[in-house]
């Protein structure tokens, strides 16, 4: 039997706990007016729930359900409502609760109707130059408070709780007014929820059908059989296809998926192919998102044109074959010749083939001839490796192009990179969207592009298969390094090469283990035994190495042999602060100072920790100088502090962590911690581009389905000094005989081949 809702008025006394999705407040409730509301031992009433930030000293009308737990009676909030101020005096009182007295006075003096201005969506008429002490950030806080208190919660109730506060907040941020938001939600329901609120199609479809069934929104058409629903479903499957790395799919396959999921509206399929967001070719039966097709078409045009009129350098490239500590092979030396004669080139090489030495010698040749250059890589870890082996600064592609929040780029088609050469390492990890940004920023009449990669490694997580397509188009001059150094030593490099060549190498394991050279050890252990062995080995290694130098690799994140379970076990032995009261919890993980973490999604607006120049020390009349930076997916960091602070003016508690990502300190609030996982153990996919002094790779039989030659090759080649491989011998030998199919369904290769045919025909005339 559900508990009865109660309604009462209260005044907020103090925020006791504050996270993105849960807050606890101590409130003052009049006992005479509401005699049935139970007070706690501190003589106030506890309210809690998933609500916006309530203003201390402000009065609210609360609808809640009474609860009794170990802390006593409290009230689980169903709805919060604050009456709109009835006169200018009440407006001033509201402003005083969220601003300093000076700021409230200045704003009230110039805009006494500020609440109505914001609610009408006319806040762009407010002249901040008139408001001393109120900058853009403070004004955004004011707007948020007004919108949350007077708009969003009423809408949650209006739509029966089917649309959440976060969805409605995103819609309001886009459309700037309640009437416009309702209008667009009614006219373009699927685009509104999926494109703006970021809700997946299946969830959005369920929400919208329920809104129509309950009559919460009077849509102008029947959603279930509508063309809009069909188009949204098509885009959903095309996006899912892209998540697998493809950029196109077959028209007939897409239709089958649509008929299966939304049969009531599938009759609109042909009609919806004409949607401006969709590209299709009725001759080739290809279909994709138009933006994706346009991206690959633009890349193909750049790649094709760039080398038609190459800028030739008359350098003595041959002399560099013998000018380093080690002599370059003829293969390696040909890479220096190639960049002298072409605007774009590919340096392709397997592990141990000397890509690093070749790249370093190219850089020496550039420096000797006063050629300016910049070094980039797709991820922070890959950029660090590039910097380590060249001894030169290297940046992520995002940072190299001057990425700024809200999708702004310092270098683009209007402002080109000011270098003679751009070198991009670990190129196979680059997806088409990022590469187009790089292409836009290069003026090929001045700048040459060198892409360095290993065609045996895994392709990008994002859509496209750039390295594979570019090499196999035979349009881009390519130097492939085949000679493997140190193979004859019989150690890790021999094992990695055999794995790449699908050659089994594990035979005699009578002692349960075997060593190859000085740097590779295989230990025969399976499933739970393998995990226990890895954790025991990790603990022994801590006597010689710090946690930052040891990396555990597994094919899966979940399961008993996955990275999550391994991380939880290693955290206890690797971090001396484990169990400390100074901690922060996110999901099922508790983080402590000293923990190694990994970023699991791109953060385009990470707040740089300003140290002493933070909000608490800013004067009341100053806007704090907050800067942002880009933290890429897959970057490893270390938690160096955990904070619990009170924000001025609002008295809100904020908790979070200060994280060092390769020398850049960023400040993550608790809500942003969901973008992290513990990073003592990471997936093999996430490890690509990085390296560690010691690696421990797990390949138990429960991972047999996932494991293949390419994945194991990537894992083994992350090692700088020692590799410990713990797994099932038979699983390893079988996996080596499997190759991942690098062929993805993309446009680029076909477009480049067609362009080459056209060029050959033109030249033959």
Beta-strand percentage? 15-25%
Task: Give the overall average pLDDT.
Answer: 89
Domain module tally? 4
What is the top-level CATH class of the largest domain?
Alpha Beta
The number of helical segments is 25
Fraction in helix: 25-40%
Outline the low-pLDDT stretches: 612-626
Oligomeric state of the chains present here: single chain
CATH homologous superfamily classification of the largest domain? P-loop containing nucleotide triphosphate hydrolases
Question: What structural category do the secondary elements indicate?
Answer: alpha/beta
Domain Helix-hairpin-helix DNA-binding motif class: 126-145, 191-210
Keywords: ATP-binding, Nucleotide-binding
GO molecular function: ATP binding; DNA binding; single-stranded DNA helicase activity
Pfam family, one: HHH_RecD2
Name the features.
6-stranded parallel beta sheet; Rossmann fold; 25 helices; 7-stranded antiparallel beta sheet; OB fold (Dihydrolipoamide Acetyltransferase, E2P); 31 strands; 4 domains; 765 residues
Could you explain the architecture of this structure?
With 765 residues, the protein is an alpha/beta fold. The protein has four domains: 5-82, Beta Barrel (OB fold (Dihydrolipoamide Acetyltransferase, E2P)); 223-295; 315-481, Rossmann fold (3-Layer(aba) Sandwich); 491-609 and 630-742, P-loop containing nucleotide triphosphate hydrolases (Rossmann fold). The chain is built from 25 helices and 31 strands. The strands form seven sheets. The protein has a seven-stranded antiparallel beta sheet. Helix 23 (709-716) links the parallel strand 30 and strand 31. The longest helix has 23 residues, at 136-158. It starts with a strand and ends with a helix. Residues 612-626 have low confidence and may be disordered.
């Amino acid at each position: 039997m559900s508990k009865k809702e109660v309604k009462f008025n209260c005044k907020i006394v103090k925020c006791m706990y504050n996270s993105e999705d849960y807050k606890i407040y101590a409130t003052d409730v009049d006992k005479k007016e509401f005699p049935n509301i139970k007070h706690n031992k501190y003589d106030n009433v506890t309210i809690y729930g998933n609500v916006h930030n309530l203003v201390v000293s402000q009065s609210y009308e609360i609808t809640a359900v009474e609860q009794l737990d170990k802390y006593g009676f409290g009230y689980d909030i169903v709805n919060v409502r604050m009456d709109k101020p009835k006169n200018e005096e009440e407006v001033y009182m509201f402003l005083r609760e969220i601003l300093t007295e000076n700021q409230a006075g200045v704003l009230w003096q110039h805009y006494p109707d500020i609440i109505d201005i914001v609610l009408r969506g006319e806040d762009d008429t407010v002249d901040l130059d008139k408001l001393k002490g109120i900058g853009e950030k403070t004004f955004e806080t004011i707007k948020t408070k007004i919108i949350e208190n007077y708009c969003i919660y009423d809408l949650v109730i209006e739509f029966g709780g089917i649309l959440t506060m976060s969805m409605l907040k995103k819609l309001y941020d886009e459309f700037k007014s309640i009437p416009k938001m309702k209008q667009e939600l009614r006219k373009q329901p699927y685009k509104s929820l999926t494109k703006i609120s970021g809700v997946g199609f299946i969830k959005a479809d369920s929400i919208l059908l329920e809104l129509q069934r309950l009559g919460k929104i009077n849509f102008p058409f029947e959603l279930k059989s509508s063309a809009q629903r069909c188009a949204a479903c098509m885009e959903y499957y095309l996006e899912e296809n892209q998540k697998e790395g493809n950029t196109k799919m077959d028209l007939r396959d897409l239709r089958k998926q649509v008929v299966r999921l939304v049969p009531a509206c599938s009759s609109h399929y042909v009609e919806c192919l004409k949607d401006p967001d969709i590209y299709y070719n009725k001759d080739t039966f290809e279909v994709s998102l138009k933006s994706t097709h346009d991206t690959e078409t633009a890349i193909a045009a750049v790649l094709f044109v760039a080398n038609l009129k190459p800028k030739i350098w008359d350098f003595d490239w041959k002399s560099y074959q013998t000018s380093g500590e080690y002599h370059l092979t003829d293969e390696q030396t040909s890479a220096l010749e190639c960049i002298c004669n072409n605007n774009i080139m590919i340096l392709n090489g397997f592990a141990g083939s000397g890509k690093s030495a070749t790249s370093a010698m190219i850089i020496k040749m550039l420096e000797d001839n006063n050629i300016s250059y910049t070094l980039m890589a797709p991820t922070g870890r890959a950029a660090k490796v590039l910097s380590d082996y060249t001894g030169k600064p290297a940046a992520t592609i995002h940072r190299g192009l001057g990425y700024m929040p809200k999708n702004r780029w310092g270098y683009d088609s209007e402002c080109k990179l000011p270098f003679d050469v751009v070198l991009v390492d670990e190129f196979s990890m680059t997806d088409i969207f990022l590469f187009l940004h790089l292409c836009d920023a290069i003026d090929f009449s001045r700048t040459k592009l060198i892409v360095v990669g290993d065609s045996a490694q895994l392709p990008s997580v994002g859509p496209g298969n750039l390295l594979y397509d570019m090499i196999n188009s035979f349009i881009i001059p390519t130097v492939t390094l085949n000679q493997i150094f140190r193979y004859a030593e019989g150690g890790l490099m021999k094992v990695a090469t055999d794995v790449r060549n699908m050659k089994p190498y594990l035979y005699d394991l009578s002692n349960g283990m075997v060593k190859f050279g000085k740097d590779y050890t295989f230990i025969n252990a399976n499933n739970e035994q393998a995990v226990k062995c890895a954790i025991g080995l990790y603990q022994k290694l801590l006597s010689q190495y710090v946690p930052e130098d040891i990396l555990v690799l597994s094919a899966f994140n979940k399961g008993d042999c996955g990275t999550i379970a391994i991380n939880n076990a290693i955290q206890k032995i690797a971090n001396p602060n484990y169990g400390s009261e100074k901690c922060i919890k996110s999901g099922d993980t508790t983080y402590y100072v000293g923990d190694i973490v990994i970023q699991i999604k791109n953060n385009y607006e990470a707040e740089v920790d300003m140290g002493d120049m933070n909000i608490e020390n800013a004067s009341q009349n100053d806007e704090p100088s907050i800067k942002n930076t880009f933290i890429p997916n897959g970057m490893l960091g270390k938690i160096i502090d955990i904070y619990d602070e009170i924000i001025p003016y609002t008295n809100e508690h904020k908790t979070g962590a200060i994280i060092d990502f390769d020398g850049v300190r960023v400040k993550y609030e608790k809500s942003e911690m969901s973008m992290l996982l513990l990073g003592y153990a990471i997936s093999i996919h996430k490890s690509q581009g990085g390296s560690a002094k010691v690696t421990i790779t797990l390949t138990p039989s429960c991972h047999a389905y996932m494991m293949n030659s390419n994945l194991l090759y990537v894992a083994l080649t992350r090692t700088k000094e020692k590799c410990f491989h713990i797994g099932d011998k038979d699983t390893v030998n079988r996996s080596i005989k499997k190759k991942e199919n690098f062929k993805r369904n993309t446009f680029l290769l076909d477009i480049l081949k067609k362009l080459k045919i056209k060029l050959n025909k033109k030249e033959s005339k």
